[in-house]
User: Fold this.
Amino acid sequence: MNQDVAIERRLLSFMEELVIREKIDLIVCSERKGTAVMRALIQEIGAPKLNWPWVRVVSTAAIEEFDWSAFKGERILFFDELVHHGYSLERAKAKLLEVTSGRFEIKTAGFAVWDRCLYRPDFSYYAAVDIEQYVEIRDAIIKMLQQYGSLLLDTEHIEISVRLECGLKEFYQELARASDAGNTFSFLSASDRLNLTIWNPDVIEPEELNRWLIPGSNTKAVVSKCRVLEKDHSHFSIMPIFYPNTRCVIDEGWISNLPSFIDRESLRSARPTYLFYLVGLLASLEVLKVVVASISDLIKAQKIVLEVPKEDFTHLKAMFPMIDTDKLWEYVRNIVSKGKLHKVERSSRGVDVQHVPEKKLANMSYFLITRMMEEIDKNGADCGLHGVPWLQLDRIARDAKESINELSDVDHRWWSIVPDRLIDTGLMHTNVEEVISSVGDPWAIRTFGPDSEVVAEKLRRQMSVRGAKWLPAT
Assistant:
Protein backbone atom coordinates (compact mmCIF):
# COMPACT_ATOMS: atom_id res chain seq x y z
CA MET A 1 0.00 0.00 0.00
CA ASN A 2 1.16 3.51 -0.74
CA GLN A 3 1.25 5.12 2.67
CA ASP A 4 2.53 8.42 1.21
CA VAL A 5 -0.87 9.12 -0.34
CA ALA A 6 -3.58 10.23 2.09
CA ILE A 7 -6.42 7.76 2.49
CA GLU A 8 -8.96 10.31 1.20
CA ARG A 9 -7.00 10.70 -2.04
CA ARG A 10 -6.96 6.96 -2.60
CA LEU A 11 -10.69 6.77 -1.92
CA LEU A 12 -11.33 9.72 -4.20
CA SER A 13 -9.35 8.33 -7.14
CA PHE A 14 -11.06 4.95 -6.74
CA MET A 15 -14.59 6.38 -6.75
CA GLU A 16 -13.93 8.99 -9.44
CA GLU A 17 -12.61 6.47 -11.92
CA LEU A 18 -15.25 3.88 -11.09
CA VAL A 19 -18.39 6.00 -11.49
CA ILE A 20 -17.17 7.44 -14.80
CA ARG A 21 -15.83 4.24 -16.31
CA GLU A 22 -18.84 2.13 -15.31
CA LYS A 23 -21.39 4.87 -16.13
CA ILE A 24 -22.97 4.67 -12.69
CA ASP A 25 -26.32 6.42 -12.18
CA LEU A 26 -26.84 5.90 -8.43
CA ILE A 27 -24.57 5.02 -5.50
CA VAL A 28 -25.98 2.99 -2.62
CA CYS A 29 -23.71 3.28 0.46
CA SER A 30 -23.40 0.97 3.42
CA GLU A 31 -24.62 2.71 6.55
CA ARG A 32 -22.86 4.25 8.45
CA LYS A 33 -19.23 4.45 7.40
CA GLY A 34 -19.93 4.10 3.68
CA THR A 35 -22.24 7.11 3.80
CA ALA A 36 -19.81 9.02 6.03
CA VAL A 37 -16.97 8.33 3.58
CA MET A 38 -19.11 9.66 0.73
CA ARG A 39 -19.78 12.84 2.69
CA ALA A 40 -16.08 13.32 3.30
CA LEU A 41 -15.35 12.91 -0.42
CA ILE A 42 -18.21 15.12 -1.64
CA GLN A 43 -18.13 17.89 0.98
CA GLU A 44 -15.26 17.85 3.44
CA ILE A 45 -11.91 17.17 1.80
CA GLY A 46 -9.99 19.95 0.11
CA ALA A 47 -10.09 20.35 -3.66
CA PRO A 48 -10.53 18.34 -5.71
CA LYS A 49 -13.72 16.83 -4.32
CA LEU A 50 -15.88 14.06 -5.69
CA ASN A 51 -18.24 15.66 -8.21
CA TRP A 52 -21.37 13.71 -7.35
CA PRO A 53 -24.82 15.05 -6.34
CA TRP A 54 -26.49 13.84 -3.15
CA VAL A 55 -29.73 13.15 -5.02
CA ARG A 56 -27.82 10.24 -6.56
CA VAL A 57 -26.78 8.70 -3.23
CA VAL A 58 -28.90 6.40 -1.05
CA SER A 59 -28.02 4.80 2.27
CA THR A 60 -28.72 1.10 2.77
CA ALA A 61 -30.88 2.19 5.72
CA ALA A 62 -33.33 3.82 3.27
CA ILE A 63 -33.38 1.70 0.11
CA GLU A 64 -36.86 0.40 0.89
CA GLU A 65 -38.17 3.97 1.22
CA PHE A 66 -36.45 5.26 -1.93
CA ASP A 67 -38.83 5.98 -4.83
CA TRP A 68 -37.53 3.47 -7.35
CA SER A 69 -40.43 4.20 -9.72
CA ALA A 70 -38.97 7.69 -10.26
CA PHE A 71 -35.42 6.45 -10.81
CA LYS A 72 -34.45 6.99 -14.46
CA GLY A 73 -30.99 5.43 -14.48
CA GLU A 74 -29.79 1.96 -15.37
CA ARG A 75 -26.69 1.17 -13.33
CA ILE A 76 -26.49 1.11 -9.53
CA LEU A 77 -23.27 0.83 -7.55
CA PHE A 78 -23.32 -0.56 -4.02
CA PHE A 79 -20.31 0.84 -2.15
CA ASP A 80 -18.91 -0.62 1.06
CA GLU A 81 -15.67 0.95 2.26
CA LEU A 82 -14.39 -2.40 3.63
CA VAL A 83 -15.41 -5.94 2.73
CA HIS A 84 -14.53 -8.61 5.28
CA HIS A 85 -16.31 -11.92 4.65
CA GLY A 86 -18.67 -10.22 2.21
CA TYR A 87 -21.90 -11.28 3.95
CA SER A 88 -23.22 -7.72 4.32
CA LEU A 89 -22.35 -7.02 0.70
CA GLU A 90 -24.35 -10.03 -0.47
CA ARG A 91 -27.29 -9.11 1.76
CA ALA A 92 -27.31 -5.57 0.42
CA LYS A 93 -27.18 -6.74 -3.17
CA ALA A 94 -30.01 -9.22 -2.57
CA LYS A 95 -32.12 -6.51 -0.93
CA LEU A 96 -31.46 -4.15 -3.84
CA LEU A 97 -32.53 -6.79 -6.32
CA GLU A 98 -35.67 -7.36 -4.27
CA VAL A 99 -36.73 -3.72 -3.90
CA THR A 100 -35.92 -2.88 -7.53
CA SER A 101 -37.56 -6.07 -8.87
CA GLY A 102 -34.36 -6.73 -10.79
CA ARG A 103 -35.00 -3.84 -13.20
CA PHE A 104 -31.51 -2.34 -12.93
CA GLU A 105 -27.95 -3.54 -13.28
CA ILE A 106 -26.29 -3.69 -9.86
CA LYS A 107 -22.52 -3.59 -9.39
CA THR A 108 -20.64 -3.80 -6.10
CA ALA A 109 -17.47 -2.07 -4.93
CA GLY A 110 -15.25 -2.31 -1.86
CA PHE A 111 -12.27 -0.06 -1.24
CA ALA A 112 -10.36 -2.83 0.54
CA VAL A 113 -11.20 -6.55 0.54
CA TRP A 114 -9.90 -9.19 2.96
CA ASP A 115 -7.88 -11.87 1.21
CA ARG A 116 -10.12 -14.59 2.70
CA CYS A 117 -13.34 -12.88 1.65
CA LEU A 118 -16.06 -15.34 0.58
CA TYR A 119 -18.23 -12.94 -1.45
CA ARG A 120 -16.11 -10.52 -3.41
CA PRO A 121 -17.24 -7.20 -4.91
CA ASP A 122 -17.04 -6.54 -8.63
CA PHE A 123 -14.55 -3.71 -8.11
CA SER A 124 -11.95 -2.91 -5.45
CA TYR A 125 -8.94 -0.70 -4.83
CA TYR A 126 -7.16 -3.25 -2.64
CA ALA A 127 -8.39 -6.62 -3.87
CA ALA A 128 -6.73 -8.86 -1.28
CA VAL A 129 -5.29 -7.59 1.99
CA ASP A 130 -4.39 -9.67 5.02
CA ILE A 131 -6.06 -8.99 8.34
CA GLU A 132 -3.27 -6.68 9.55
CA GLN A 133 -3.54 -4.56 6.41
CA TYR A 134 -7.35 -4.64 6.67
CA VAL A 135 -7.21 -3.26 10.23
CA GLU A 136 -4.63 -0.68 9.17
CA ILE A 137 -6.87 0.62 6.37
CA ARG A 138 -9.90 0.59 8.67
CA ASP A 139 -8.02 2.67 11.24
CA ALA A 140 -6.91 5.10 8.52
CA ILE A 141 -10.50 5.61 7.36
CA ILE A 142 -11.71 6.22 10.92
CA LYS A 143 -8.87 8.66 11.51
CA MET A 144 -9.83 10.48 8.31
CA LEU A 145 -13.42 10.81 9.52
CA GLN A 146 -12.23 12.07 12.90
CA GLN A 147 -10.11 14.73 11.22
CA TYR A 148 -13.16 15.98 9.37
CA GLY A 149 -15.17 16.28 12.58
CA SER A 150 -16.30 12.80 13.64
CA LEU A 151 -18.38 12.26 10.53
CA LEU A 152 -19.40 8.82 11.76
CA LEU A 153 -22.08 10.69 13.67
CA ASP A 154 -23.80 12.85 11.18
CA THR A 155 -25.23 10.69 8.42
CA GLU A 156 -28.64 11.11 10.04
CA HIS A 157 -28.47 14.26 12.18
CA ILE A 158 -29.20 17.94 11.74
CA GLU A 159 -26.11 20.09 12.03
CA ILE A 160 -25.61 23.82 12.45
CA SER A 161 -22.39 25.81 12.53
CA VAL A 162 -20.89 28.22 15.07
CA ARG A 163 -17.92 30.54 14.71
CA LEU A 164 -16.51 31.91 17.96
CA GLU A 165 -15.60 35.52 18.60
CA CYS A 166 -15.33 34.83 22.33
CA GLY A 167 -13.45 32.39 24.52
CA LEU A 168 -14.22 28.69 24.47
CA LYS A 169 -14.92 28.63 28.22
CA GLU A 170 -17.64 31.28 27.92
CA PHE A 171 -19.20 29.47 24.96
CA TYR A 172 -19.31 26.15 26.81
CA GLN A 173 -20.68 27.70 29.99
CA GLU A 174 -23.55 29.28 28.11
CA LEU A 175 -24.31 25.99 26.35
CA ALA A 176 -24.45 24.26 29.75
CA ARG A 177 -27.57 26.32 30.55
CA ALA A 178 -29.51 24.00 28.24
CA SER A 179 -29.62 21.27 30.89
CA ASP A 180 -29.48 20.73 34.64
CA ALA A 181 -26.28 21.28 36.58
CA GLY A 182 -23.83 18.43 36.18
CA ASN A 183 -25.16 17.31 32.79
CA THR A 184 -22.58 18.99 30.53
CA PHE A 185 -19.20 17.41 29.87
CA SER A 186 -16.14 18.36 27.85
CA PHE A 187 -13.63 15.78 26.68
CA LEU A 188 -10.92 15.27 24.12
CA SER A 189 -12.01 13.51 20.95
CA ALA A 190 -9.85 10.81 19.39
CA SER A 191 -8.38 13.53 17.15
CA ASP A 192 -7.48 15.65 20.22
CA ARG A 193 -10.23 18.22 19.79
CA LEU A 194 -12.14 19.51 22.79
CA ASN A 195 -15.75 18.43 22.31
CA LEU A 196 -18.84 18.90 24.46
CA THR A 197 -21.84 16.71 25.25
CA ILE A 198 -24.98 18.14 26.86
CA TRP A 199 -26.96 15.28 28.36
CA ASN A 200 -30.77 15.39 28.71
CA PRO A 201 -31.31 18.99 27.52
CA ASP A 202 -34.54 20.71 28.50
CA VAL A 203 -37.57 20.56 26.25
CA ILE A 204 -39.00 24.07 26.17
CA GLU A 205 -42.03 23.20 24.03
CA PRO A 206 -43.24 19.79 25.23
CA GLU A 207 -46.43 20.04 23.17
CA GLU A 208 -44.28 20.18 20.04
CA LEU A 209 -42.32 17.12 21.12
CA ASN A 210 -45.60 15.24 21.61
CA ARG A 211 -46.57 16.26 18.10
CA TRP A 212 -43.56 14.40 16.70
CA LEU A 213 -44.10 11.20 18.69
CA ILE A 214 -46.21 8.39 17.27
CA PRO A 215 -48.87 7.86 19.98
CA GLY A 216 -47.71 5.31 22.53
CA SER A 217 -44.00 6.07 22.08
CA ASN A 218 -41.96 7.09 25.11
CA THR A 219 -38.95 9.25 25.95
CA LYS A 220 -37.94 7.70 29.27
CA ALA A 221 -34.32 6.53 29.64
CA VAL A 222 -33.48 7.14 25.98
CA VAL A 223 -30.67 8.94 24.15
CA SER A 224 -31.29 12.69 24.38
CA LYS A 225 -28.29 14.97 24.06
CA CYS A 226 -26.50 17.59 22.05
CA ARG A 227 -22.98 17.11 20.78
CA VAL A 228 -20.75 20.09 20.06
CA LEU A 229 -17.87 19.11 17.80
CA GLU A 230 -14.73 21.17 17.31
CA LYS A 231 -13.86 21.54 13.63
CA ASP A 232 -10.95 23.90 14.31
CA HIS A 233 -10.02 26.33 17.10
CA SER A 234 -12.91 28.74 16.35
CA HIS A 235 -15.35 26.67 14.28
CA PHE A 236 -17.80 24.21 15.88
CA SER A 237 -20.73 22.08 14.77
CA ILE A 238 -23.81 21.70 16.96
CA MET A 239 -25.60 18.39 16.54
CA PRO A 240 -28.86 17.72 18.46
CA ILE A 241 -29.69 14.03 19.01
CA PHE A 242 -32.90 12.58 20.45
CA TYR A 243 -34.11 9.01 19.93
CA PRO A 244 -37.41 8.10 21.61
CA ASN A 245 -38.45 4.47 21.86
CA THR A 246 -40.87 4.48 18.95
CA ARG A 247 -44.15 2.60 18.70
CA CYS A 248 -44.37 1.93 14.97
CA VAL A 249 -48.12 1.80 14.44
CA ILE A 250 -49.07 4.50 11.95
CA ASP A 251 -51.58 6.97 13.32
CA GLU A 252 -53.43 9.17 10.81
CA GLY A 253 -53.57 12.05 13.26
CA TRP A 254 -49.79 11.87 13.65
CA ILE A 255 -49.25 11.88 9.88
CA SER A 256 -51.55 14.85 9.34
CA ASN A 257 -49.56 16.89 11.90
CA LEU A 258 -46.21 16.37 10.21
CA PRO A 259 -44.51 19.34 8.52
CA SER A 260 -44.69 19.85 4.78
CA PHE A 261 -41.07 18.89 4.11
CA ILE A 262 -42.07 15.23 4.64
CA ASP A 263 -43.77 13.10 1.98
CA ARG A 264 -46.61 12.04 4.26
CA GLU A 265 -48.29 9.65 1.84
CA SER A 266 -45.19 7.49 1.47
CA LEU A 267 -44.92 7.08 5.26
CA ARG A 268 -47.89 4.75 5.34
CA SER A 269 -45.72 1.96 3.96
CA ALA A 270 -42.51 2.90 5.81
CA ARG A 271 -40.70 0.29 7.88
CA PRO A 272 -40.30 0.62 11.67
CA THR A 273 -36.59 1.41 11.23
CA TYR A 274 -37.34 4.36 8.97
CA LEU A 275 -40.09 5.60 11.30
CA PHE A 276 -37.59 5.49 14.16
CA TYR A 277 -35.07 7.62 12.29
CA LEU A 278 -37.75 10.09 11.21
CA VAL A 279 -39.17 10.49 14.73
CA GLY A 280 -35.60 10.94 15.98
CA LEU A 281 -34.90 13.65 13.43
CA LEU A 282 -38.07 15.54 14.38
CA ALA A 283 -37.53 15.10 18.13
CA SER A 284 -34.00 16.48 17.81
CA LEU A 285 -35.55 19.80 16.73
CA GLU A 286 -36.74 20.22 20.32
CA VAL A 287 -33.17 19.77 21.56
CA LEU A 288 -32.00 22.33 19.02
CA LYS A 289 -34.47 24.92 20.34
CA VAL A 290 -33.13 24.93 23.90
CA VAL A 291 -29.50 24.86 22.75
CA VAL A 292 -30.01 27.92 20.55
CA ALA A 293 -31.85 29.64 23.39
CA SER A 294 -28.97 28.94 25.78
CA ILE A 295 -26.50 30.84 23.57
CA SER A 296 -28.88 33.60 22.48
CA ASP A 297 -27.11 36.19 24.68
CA LEU A 298 -23.81 35.39 22.96
CA ILE A 299 -25.49 35.79 19.57
CA LYS A 300 -26.99 39.16 20.50
CA ALA A 301 -23.64 40.34 21.84
CA GLN A 302 -22.01 39.22 18.58
CA LYS A 303 -19.66 36.96 20.51
CA ILE A 304 -20.57 34.03 18.26
CA VAL A 305 -21.87 33.73 14.73
CA LEU A 306 -24.53 31.04 14.37
CA GLU A 307 -25.13 29.75 10.84
CA VAL A 308 -27.36 27.16 9.20
CA PRO A 309 -25.41 26.20 6.06
CA LYS A 310 -27.65 24.79 3.36
CA GLU A 311 -24.87 22.50 2.14
CA ASP A 312 -24.86 20.75 5.53
CA PHE A 313 -28.38 19.46 4.87
CA THR A 314 -28.08 18.00 1.38
CA HIS A 315 -26.41 14.78 2.57
CA LEU A 316 -29.51 13.95 4.64
CA LYS A 317 -31.26 13.04 1.37
CA ALA A 318 -29.29 9.78 1.32
CA MET A 319 -30.80 8.78 4.66
CA PHE A 320 -34.23 10.42 4.28
CA PRO A 321 -35.47 10.07 0.69
CA MET A 322 -38.99 11.03 1.83
CA ILE A 323 -37.75 14.46 2.98
CA ASP A 324 -37.31 17.59 0.90
CA THR A 325 -33.96 18.69 2.36
CA ASP A 326 -34.29 22.25 1.01
CA LYS A 327 -37.56 22.69 2.89
CA LEU A 328 -36.07 21.03 5.96
CA TRP A 329 -33.23 23.55 5.86
CA GLU A 330 -35.74 26.41 5.72
CA TYR A 331 -37.69 24.87 8.61
CA VAL A 332 -34.55 24.56 10.77
CA ARG A 333 -33.41 28.07 9.85
CA ASN A 334 -36.78 29.36 11.10
CA ILE A 335 -36.40 27.39 14.35
CA VAL A 336 -32.96 28.89 14.89
CA SER A 337 -34.28 32.41 14.25
CA LYS A 338 -37.07 31.94 16.79
CA GLY A 339 -34.74 30.19 19.22
CA LYS A 340 -32.62 33.31 19.47
CA LEU A 341 -35.63 35.07 21.01
CA HIS A 342 -36.09 32.48 23.77
CA LYS A 343 -34.66 32.98 27.20
CA VAL A 344 -33.54 30.11 29.41
CA GLU A 345 -34.05 30.81 33.09
CA ARG A 346 -30.99 28.89 34.23
CA SER A 347 -28.01 31.17 34.91
CA SER A 348 -24.53 30.18 33.76
CA ARG A 349 -23.47 30.65 37.39
CA GLY A 350 -25.81 27.81 38.37
CA VAL A 351 -24.28 25.20 36.08
CA ASP A 352 -20.81 24.04 35.22
CA VAL A 353 -18.97 22.12 32.55
CA GLN A 354 -17.21 19.06 33.90
CA HIS A 355 -14.07 18.03 32.05
CA VAL A 356 -13.62 14.26 31.94
CA PRO A 357 -9.88 13.43 32.08
CA GLU A 358 -8.52 11.54 29.11
CA LYS A 359 -7.12 8.58 31.06
CA LYS A 360 -10.32 8.16 33.05
CA LEU A 361 -12.41 8.30 29.87
CA ALA A 362 -10.19 5.67 28.24
CA ASN A 363 -10.58 3.35 31.25
CA MET A 364 -14.34 3.84 31.30
CA SER A 365 -14.53 3.22 27.55
CA TYR A 366 -12.66 -0.08 27.72
CA PHE A 367 -14.72 -1.24 30.67
CA LEU A 368 -18.02 -0.48 28.94
CA ILE A 369 -17.14 -2.02 25.56
CA THR A 370 -15.74 -5.23 27.03
CA ARG A 371 -18.58 -5.72 29.50
CA MET A 372 -21.06 -5.02 26.71
CA MET A 373 -19.25 -7.60 24.59
CA GLU A 374 -19.65 -10.17 27.36
CA GLU A 375 -23.39 -9.53 27.61
CA ILE A 376 -23.94 -9.72 23.87
CA ASP A 377 -22.05 -13.01 23.66
CA LYS A 378 -24.01 -14.38 26.60
CA ASN A 379 -27.50 -13.10 25.87
CA GLY A 380 -27.61 -11.71 22.35
CA ALA A 381 -28.92 -14.81 20.61
CA ASP A 382 -31.48 -15.48 23.35
CA CYS A 383 -32.98 -11.99 23.41
CA GLY A 384 -32.93 -11.58 19.63
CA LEU A 385 -30.90 -8.34 19.74
CA HIS A 386 -27.57 -7.74 18.02
CA GLY A 387 -26.69 -4.99 20.49
CA VAL A 388 -27.81 -3.71 23.87
CA PRO A 389 -30.33 -0.92 24.56
CA TRP A 390 -29.42 2.24 26.43
CA LEU A 391 -30.89 1.00 29.71
CA GLN A 392 -28.53 -1.97 29.62
CA LEU A 393 -25.54 0.28 28.98
CA ASP A 394 -26.61 2.35 31.99
CA ARG A 395 -26.79 -0.76 34.17
CA ILE A 396 -23.34 -1.87 33.02
CA ALA A 397 -21.97 1.55 33.93
CA ARG A 398 -23.49 1.39 37.41
CA ASP A 399 -21.80 -1.99 37.95
CA ALA A 400 -18.39 -0.37 37.47
CA LYS A 401 -18.55 1.52 40.76
CA GLU A 402 -18.79 -1.75 42.66
CA SER A 403 -16.46 -3.93 40.57
CA ILE A 404 -13.59 -1.66 39.50
CA ASN A 405 -11.55 0.25 42.06
CA GLU A 406 -10.12 2.60 39.44
CA LEU A 407 -13.65 3.73 38.54
CA SER A 408 -15.24 3.86 41.98
CA ASP A 409 -14.82 7.66 42.19
CA VAL A 410 -16.30 8.38 38.75
CA ASP A 411 -19.34 10.66 38.66
CA HIS A 412 -22.07 8.40 37.29
CA ARG A 413 -23.17 11.09 34.85
CA TRP A 414 -19.80 10.86 33.10
CA TRP A 415 -20.85 7.53 31.64
CA SER A 416 -23.25 9.29 29.29
CA ILE A 417 -20.33 10.44 27.11
CA VAL A 418 -18.54 7.09 26.92
CA PRO A 419 -20.60 5.85 23.94
CA ASP A 420 -19.70 9.10 22.14
CA ARG A 421 -16.01 8.33 22.52
CA LEU A 422 -16.45 4.68 21.52
CA ILE A 423 -18.42 5.63 18.40
CA ASP A 424 -15.86 8.28 17.43
CA THR A 425 -13.04 5.76 17.66
CA GLY A 426 -14.87 3.13 15.62
CA LEU A 427 -15.22 0.62 18.47
CA MET A 428 -19.00 0.92 18.89
CA HIS A 429 -21.80 1.42 16.41
CA THR A 430 -25.47 2.18 16.88
CA ASN A 431 -28.31 0.27 15.32
CA VAL A 432 -32.10 0.31 15.19
CA GLU A 433 -33.74 -2.94 16.17
CA GLU A 434 -37.36 -3.95 15.97
CA VAL A 435 -39.09 -5.62 18.91
CA ILE A 436 -42.67 -6.74 19.45
CA SER A 437 -44.46 -5.56 22.57
CA SER A 438 -46.52 -7.78 24.85
CA VAL A 439 -49.66 -6.67 22.98
CA GLY A 440 -48.17 -7.42 19.57
CA ASP A 441 -47.21 -3.88 18.47
CA PRO A 442 -43.94 -3.30 16.61
CA TRP A 443 -41.46 -0.98 18.30
CA ALA A 444 -38.08 0.35 17.22
CA ILE A 445 -35.32 1.07 19.73
CA ARG A 446 -31.71 2.27 19.66
CA THR A 447 -29.12 -0.38 20.44
CA PHE A 448 -25.34 -0.37 20.76
CA GLY A 449 -22.86 -3.01 19.71
CA PRO A 450 -19.25 -3.57 18.62
CA ASP A 451 -18.60 -1.76 15.36
CA SER A 452 -17.69 -4.81 13.29
CA GLU A 453 -16.76 -8.46 13.43
CA VAL A 454 -13.11 -7.41 13.39
CA VAL A 455 -13.61 -5.25 16.49
CA ALA A 456 -15.62 -7.99 18.23
CA GLU A 457 -12.93 -10.61 17.64
CA LYS A 458 -10.19 -8.27 18.78
CA LEU A 459 -12.11 -7.57 21.98
CA ARG A 460 -12.66 -11.28 22.62
CA ARG A 461 -8.94 -12.00 22.20
CA GLN A 462 -7.97 -9.21 24.58
CA MET A 463 -10.57 -10.27 27.12
CA SER A 464 -9.32 -13.87 27.08
CA VAL A 465 -5.75 -12.73 27.69
CA ARG A 466 -6.36 -10.01 30.26
CA GLY A 467 -9.48 -11.40 31.88
CA ALA A 468 -13.08 -10.80 30.92
CA LYS A 469 -13.82 -8.69 33.98
CA TRP A 470 -11.55 -5.75 33.22
CA LEU A 471 -9.51 -4.51 30.30
CA PRO A 472 -7.21 -1.60 31.18
CA ALA A 473 -6.51 1.12 28.68
CA THR A 474 -3.45 0.52 26.53
Q: What stands out?
A: Residues 209 and 225 are 14 Å apart (CA to CA).
